[in-house]
């Protein structure tokens, strides 16, 4: 398929801040954006068009898809039936298989393991008996995670001792789950990879990520990851992207266990979309993750991912956003506010990137 010329319409499922930043990037390339969402969101403010409808309404999704040239999404919990309804009308990029894998932790672990890539030991948990057995196999500490709809540390409970098992199952609402062995990592990193229609890939410098209360707090580049390990991380992301015949930006979150470990890197999870740990690319790279995603799904050449400056991205969660005036006054700080009406606790309201001269080539 040839590239979608400027003036084409990119359909985005979801109206959050990721959709908003994708829409801004699309506008820069002369593309239009038509958002489909079940609720008003910050992407509406910057999109050419929006449609409000249920993600379960496959007829409405199909009608929307007929009005766009290509479909993409900004969240991984798009119902597979919605993706199929859209795919019957227009190309969906990344494809439905990426959604299927990313929205179920069990399928995701099995998929990553099937590629021969390292993951934490895991087991399927559908009952108390499953959990008792899995705890014997995997040991403690361990994490019980719901298979679906877990994000930002939600839907997961740490099990310190086998006696915590029943309470842990209650805490995740007895939903289908997996038990995951605890990885004693040094730190967390992520690969933000872009793959085009022809299978070419580029990836950004790998940030080190910190979390507070399960939510990403900061992403910093350069990371202290040894360069030989960084190359391995990129290879892991390329394997995953290749196996999914992926198009667009793919994020792969990894635990760095230690350079001398048998498996220095362990895959935690993937996100089939632009990612919070790649937001610093807006201010530190000539072409950011959002533009590269729009380029890839439009069938355009993807652009180099070179970084011009060092960067620390910090999320503004809840009331943090009230510091906007001080942040706006700092000349080394790039401020991004998502335009959400209400600063609820735990809600991602914006982020800022502190930039400084580049220290590593
Ligand atoms: P997740 O929602 O799976 O990304 O988990 C949220 C955070 O919990 C991760 O960023 C890690 O800090 C921590 N975590 C998740 N899984 C494990 C694990 N198997 N071992 C140690 N820490 C974990």
Descriptive overview:
- With 361 residues, this protein is α+β, with helices and mostly antiparallel strands.
- It has 3 domains: 9-92, Rossmann fold (3-Layer(aba) Sandwich), CATH 3.40.50.20; 121-181, ATP-grasp fold, A domain (Dna Ligase, domain 1), CATH 3.30.1490; 187-357, D-amino Acid Aminotransferase, Chain A, domain 1.
- It is 28% helix and 28% strand.
- The strands form 3 sheets. Strands 9, 10, 11, 12, 13, 14, 15, 16 and 17 form a 9-stranded antiparallel β-sheet that branches. Strands 3-2-1-4 form a 4-stranded parallel β-sheet, with helices on both faces.
- Strand 9 and strand 10 (201-203) form a beta hairpin.
- Helix 1 crosses helix 10 (289-297).
- The chain is globular.
- The mean pLDDT is 96.
- Adenosine monophosphate binds at residues 120, 143, 150, 153, 180, 182-183, 188, 211, 214, 253, 268-269.
Summarize this structure as a short list of keywords or feature phrases.
D-amino Acid Aminotransferase, Chain A, domain 1, four-stranded parallel beta sheet, Dna Ligase, domain 1, Rossmann fold, 3 domains, binds adenosine monophosphate, alpha+beta, nine-stranded antiparallel beta sheet, 11 helices, 17 strands, about 30% helix, about 350 residues, globular, single chain
Q: How is this fold's topology laid out?
A:
Elements: E1 9-13, H1 17-28, E2 32-37, E3 49-52, H2 58-66, E4 70-73, H3 80-87, H4 96-102, H5 105-114, E5 122-125, H6 128-138, E6 142-146, E7 156-159, H7 165-171, E8 177-181, E9 187-195, E10 201-203, E11 208-212, E12 215-221, H8 227-243, E13 248-256, E14 265-271, H9 281-284, H10 289-297, E15 309-317, H11 324-329, E16 333-337, E17 348-357
Helix pairs in contact: 1-10, 2-3
């Amino acid at each position: 398929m040839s590239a979608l010329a400027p003036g084409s319409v990119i359909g985005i499922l979801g109206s959050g801040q990721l959709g908003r930043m994708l829409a801004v990037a699309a506008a820069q390339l002369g593309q239009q954006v038509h958002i489909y969402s079940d609720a008003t969101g910050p992407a509406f403010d910057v999109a050419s068009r929006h449609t409000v409808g249920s993600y379960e309404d496959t007829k409405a999704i199909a009608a929307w898809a007929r009005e766009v040239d290509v479909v993409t999404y900004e969240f991984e919990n798009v119902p597979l039936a919605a993706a199929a309804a859209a795919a019957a009308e227009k190309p969906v990029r990344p494809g439905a298989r990426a959604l299927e894998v990313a929205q179920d932790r069990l399928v995701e672990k099995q998929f990553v393991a099937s590629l021969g890539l390292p993951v934490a030991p895991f087991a399927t948990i559908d009952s108390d008996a499953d959990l008792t057995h899995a705890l014997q196999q995997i040991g403690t500490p361990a994490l019980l995670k719901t298979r679906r709809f877990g994000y930002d540390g939600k839907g997961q409970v740490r099990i310190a001792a086998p006696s915590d098992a029943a309470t842990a199952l209650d805490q995740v609402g007895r939903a289908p789950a997996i038990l995951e062995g605890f990885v004693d990592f040094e730190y967390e990193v992520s690969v933000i990879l872009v793959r085009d229609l022809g299978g070419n890939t580029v990836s950004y410098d790998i940030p080190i990520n910190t979390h507070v209360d399960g939510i990403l707090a900061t992403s910093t580049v350069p990371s202290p990851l040894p360069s030989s390990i960084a190359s391995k991380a990129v290879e892991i992301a390329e394997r995953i992207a290749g196996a999914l015949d992926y198009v667009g930006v793919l994020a792969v979150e990894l635990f760095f266990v230690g350079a001398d470990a048998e498996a220095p890197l362990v895959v935690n999870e993937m996100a089939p979309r632009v990612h919070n740990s790649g937001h610093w690319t807006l201010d530190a790279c000539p072409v950011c993750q959002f533009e590269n995603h729009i380029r890839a799904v439009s069938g355009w050449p993807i652009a180099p991912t070179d970084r011009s400056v060092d960067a620390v991205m910090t999320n503004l969660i809840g009331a943090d956003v009230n510091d906007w005036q001080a942040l706006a006054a700092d000349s080394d700080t790039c401020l991004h506010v998502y335009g959400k009406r209400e600063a609820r606790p735990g809600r991602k309201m914006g982020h800022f990137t502190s930039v400084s001269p580049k220290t590593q080539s």
